[in-house]
């Protein structure tokens, strides 16, 4: 009810400004200890995935809090886990403005943010200041000006930095907004990356006496053959989890819609079916050996339920939160 009154006001603002205003005001409510007045108590629905005990299976997808500045206040919305980032080794401004577009009739968003963030050291410093005790995922990527042949160095740099503070680390090789990034999903490059990550994971496990799962985030735009090959590599290298999916470059179903021709990744309702299809195919290939985290097009409790039936163990929401508000978290938990 509260959000249904607030949303028309937020939607008057440019999307990126609305995003910032929302987070800042949520943080104010949290600091004043007023969040309980606005957000309902979330049911406890524990599940153990990747050796981690989640208080509930519904998480916040990466992108909402790239720099880890709002972890504690976002946690008051009832998420079972929060994923921050994507963060890169060095700060970068991202792509030029405008770079975020709403498509309200389609309950969708197009973004071409381009991994805008303040760098991994800033993220770590912010995490060190928090008192968050829940499950924290940290999503890492490469800088846009890092040549593809040096991309592994960027991922290893970030992995080493965030490892002590993460409950799991998500490897973003699927954003459409960093040139050539999705090539890392291809067979040879993917194998090189996974091999390097697993070697580093073992070294860091020994160093910190702590095993931090590694999760790979993939695109929805891969072919069936490409997805099968990705799944095979995930199994060979004993990757701990997979997120399906990132945003899509497809504009299927968008006709005569303002901003539909903007470059970038599409999220929201139009992505839901293709993301579910990816989960189904992954589930067939992985046979329960690697858990699947569903992201993409979770706009309702029914969407989440469909993804669970397709094979997902956990759910992440982002665009659904923008269109439906915090009540979506509780509804999704109750119906997952």
Describe this structure in words.
- This protein has 336 residues and is of the alpha/beta class.
- The protein has one domain (2-335): TIM Barrel (Alpha-Beta Barrel).
- It contains twelve helices and 13 strands.
- Strands 3-4-7-8-9-10-12-13 form an eight-stranded parallel beta barrel, surrounded by five helices. A three-stranded antiparallel beta sheet has the order 5-6-11, with no helix packed on it.
- Helix 7 (187-208) packs parallel to helix 8.
List keywords for this structure.
single chain, 336 residues, alpha/beta, TIM Barrel, eight-stranded parallel barrel, three-stranded antiparallel beta sheet, 13 strands
Summarize the amount of helix as a percent range. Answer: 25-40%
CATH class: Alpha Beta
Spatial shape: globular
Structural category is: alpha/beta
CATH topology: TIM Barrel
- Note the run of SSEs as H and E: HHHEEEHEEEHEHEHEHEEHEHEHH
Number of helices: 12
Q: CATH superfamily membership, which one?
A: Aldolase class I
Question: Would you spell out the secondary-structure blueprint of this structure?
Answer:
Layout: H1 2-10, H2 15-31, H3 35-38, E1 47-49, E2 52-54, E3 58-60, H4 71-75, E4 81-87, E5 100-103, E6 108-111, H5 120-129, E7 135-140, H6 151-162, E8 168-172, H7 187-208, E9 214-218, H8 224-236, E10 241-244, E11 265-268, H9 272-286, E12 292-294, H10 301-310, E13 314-317, H11 319-324, H12 327-335
Parallel strand pairs: 3-4, 3-13, 4-7, 7-8, 8-9, 9-10, 10-12, 12-13
Antiparallel strand pairs: 1-2, 5-6, 6-11
């Amino acid at each position: 009810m509260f959000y249904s009154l607030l949303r028309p006001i937020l939607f008057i603002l440019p999307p990126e400004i609305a995003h910032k205003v929302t987070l800042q005001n949520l943080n104010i409510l949290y600091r004043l200890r007023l969040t309980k007045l606005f957000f309902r108590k979330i049911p406890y629905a524990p599940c153990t995935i990747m050796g981690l005990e989640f208080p509930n299976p519904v998480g916040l997808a990466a992108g909402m809090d790239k720099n880890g500045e709002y972890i504690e206040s976002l946690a008051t919305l009832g998420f079972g886990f929060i994923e921050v980032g994507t963060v890169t080794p060095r700060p970068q401004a991202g792509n030029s403005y405008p770079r975020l577009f709403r498509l309200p009739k389609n309950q969708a968003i197009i973004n071409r943010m381009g991994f805008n963030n303040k760098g991994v050291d800033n993220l770590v410093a912010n995490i060190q200041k928090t008192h968050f005790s829940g499950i924290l995922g940290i999503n890492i990527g490469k800088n846009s000006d890092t040549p593809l042949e040096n991309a592994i160095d960027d991922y290893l740099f970030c992995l080493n930095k965030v490892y002590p503070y993460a409950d799991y680390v998500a490897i973003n090789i699927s954003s459409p907004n960093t040139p050539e990034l999705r090539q890392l999903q291809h067979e040879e490059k993917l194998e090189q990356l996974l091999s390097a990550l697993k070697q580093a994971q073992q070294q860091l496990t020994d160093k910190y006496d702590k095993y931090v799962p590694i999760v790979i985030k993939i695109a929805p735009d891969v072919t069936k053959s490409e997805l099968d090959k990705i799944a095979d590599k995930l199994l060979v290298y004993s990757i701990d989890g997979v997120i399906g999916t990132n945003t899509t470059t497809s504009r299927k179903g968008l006709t005569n819609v303002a901003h539909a021709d903007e470059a970038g990744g599409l999220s929201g309702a139009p992505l839901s079916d293709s993301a579910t299809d990816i989960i189904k195919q992954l589930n067939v290939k992985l046979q329960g050996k690697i858990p699947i985290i569903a992201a993409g097009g979770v706009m309702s409790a029914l969407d989440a339920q469909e993804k669970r039936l397709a094979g997902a163990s956990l759910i992440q929401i982002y665009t659904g939160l923008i269109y439906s508000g915090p009540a979506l978290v509780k509804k999704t938990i109750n119906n997952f």
